[in-house]
Design brief:
This protein is α+β, with helices and mostly antiparallel strands and 421 residues long. The protein has two domains: 189 residues, Acetylcholine Binding Protein, Chain: A, CATH 2.70.170; 146 residues, Methane Monooxygenase Hydroxylase, Chain G, domain 1 (Up-down Bundle). The chain contains seven helices and 14 strands. Strands 1, 2, 3, 5, 6, 7, 9 and 10 form an eight-stranded mixed sheet that branches. The chain has a four-stranded antiparallel sheet with strand order 4-8-12-11, with no helix packed on it. It is found in: Postsynaptic cell membrane. Its main location: membrane.
């Protein structure tokens, strides 16, 4: 080991000894139970944050997690010392000198980091100004309004106040410049729009007024994942339900299975979304969308039930008229033979023939006899399964398009902006 290295080690040891002695000399007559300026004006504590990371923002538990460097700065005249020393540093100074008893209101869990050493440092300047910084991770409650989910913006606040000292003894102050963030801050599913601070007084009827610092984060939810996992698949399901109108009404297995599959898929998708969200008493924007899609696909299933009913009804009516016409013809050729039982009275037969029968081409209904009417060509009722399917093919997409023209502007353009509030 060279002589220069030995001299450096000795100088460092002397500096550490002088610093430690100075610290304990200051603490000899110091009472860390009493705040600065005791009996005088309240001590002013400036609070600042450096946000290292913002973790998951959970709607299910309504909270958010962050890791930060929590900074406190105040002046304690009792700690002023000889200005021949620039500063005094000590990680254990918090156990020797008075420190603010601050805590985080609405905190659910948290801890101070101690890997590989306790992540806390206290700096005392010659004029008695104390600066303390500690690295903390915590989870704080955040009430969320989910009415416009997933088009929503959320405001979550970090509330800092004294546990025992009212505004008569301590005043907390901060401003927007005291809060800094990592340059490339990544938040899952959200974008940080703004950070602002407020200084307030929290009033307790029994304990008095307490100074409160509030750091308000405004988050904008990212829509990409919901477009890919909810909106586009549900639009495709509605489209599949619409395509069922192009299938022949007589293909019952194909149309029924298609309708039931789309209904069950939308229902499963809705259940999956609800499991990840808290139970609330109001409808969310995504609930309105999924409910509308469920109504559309269920309507397609109901439409086939109507088409199938008309198909069966028209078939029975056609068979009844044909049987009645055959009975009439046989009765004219053989008066003595018993009539064929067709289940229709003369009044019903006359009505059905008038409604469902037209004369052949080239014949007039004014001068036609009963025999000509009986041999008329049988046609189906105007409300047939094919006609209902044809109407549904036009009305269904028009109604869904109208719903989209209302839904998307309301959800996107009418979202409240919390940035300036």
């Amino acid at each position: 080991m060279s002589l220069l290295q030995i001299l450096r080690i000795i100088a460092l040891a002397v500096a550490c000894y002088v610093t430690r002695c100075s610290c304990y000399q200051l603490a000899d007559s110091y009472n860390n139970k009493l705040r600065p300026n005791v009996g005088g004006p309240p001590v002013e504590v400036r609070v600042g944050l450096y946000i290292e990371s913002l973790g998951a923002i959970k709607e299910s538990t309504m909270d958010f997690r962050l890791t930060m460097y929590f900074r406190e700065k105040w002046n304690d005249p009792r700690l002023a010392f000889n200005k021949t020393y620039e500063r005094i540093y000590g990680a254990d100074a918090g156990n020797i000198f008075w420190t603010p008893d601050l805590f985080f209101l609405y905190e659910k869990s948290g801890h101070r980091h101690d890997l590989t050493v306790p992540n806390i440092v206290t700096t005392i300047q010659p004029d008695g100004t104390v600066f303390r910084s500690s690295r903390i991770s915590l989870t704080s409650a955040c009430y969320m309004d989910l009415q416009r989910f997933p088009f929503d913006r959320q405001r979550c606040s970090l509330n800092i106040m004294s546990y025992s000292l009212s505004t008569k003894h301590m005043k907390l102050v901060t401003n927007d410049d005291d809060v800094e963030t990592e340059e490339k801050l990544i938040i899952p599913s959200f974008v940080l729009k703004s950070i602002r601070t407020t200084n307030e007084d929290l009033v307790y009827s029994t304990a008095g007024n307490f100074s409160l610092v509030k750091v308000i984060f405004t988050f904008q939810r990212q829509m990409q994942s919901f477009l890919l996992t909810v909106y586009i698949p549900s639009i495709l399901l509605v489209t599949v339900a619409w395509l069922s109108f192009c299938i022949d009404a007589q293909a019952a297995p194909a149309r029924v299975s298609l309708g039931i599959t789309t209904v069950l898929t939308i229902t499963t998708m809705t259940s999956g979304i609800q499991e990840s969200l808290p139970v609330v008493t109001y409808a969310k924007a995504i609930d309105v969308w999924l409910a509308a899609c469920l109504i559309f696909v269920f309507t397609a299933l109901i439409e086939y039930a109507l088409a199938n009913y008309l198909l069966i009804l028209n078939k029975k009516r056609k068979e009844a008229i044909e049987a009645a016409e055959a009975s009439r013809k046989s009765s004219t050729t053989s008066r003595d033979s018993p009539p064929i039982k067709h289940g229709l009275s003369d009044e019903q037969l006359s009505r059905y023939r008038t409604q469902y029968a037209v004369p052949p081409k080239g014949q007039s209904t004014t001068n036609g006899s009963d025999e000509e009417t009986q041999t008329a060509q049988i046609v189906v009722t105007p409300w047939t399964a094919d006609r209902v399917d044809c109407l549904a093919r036009h009305i269904y997409p028009a109604a869904f398009t109208l719903f989209n023209l209302i839904y998307w502007p309301v959800c996107i353009w009418m979202t409240p902006d919390y940035t300036d509030q």
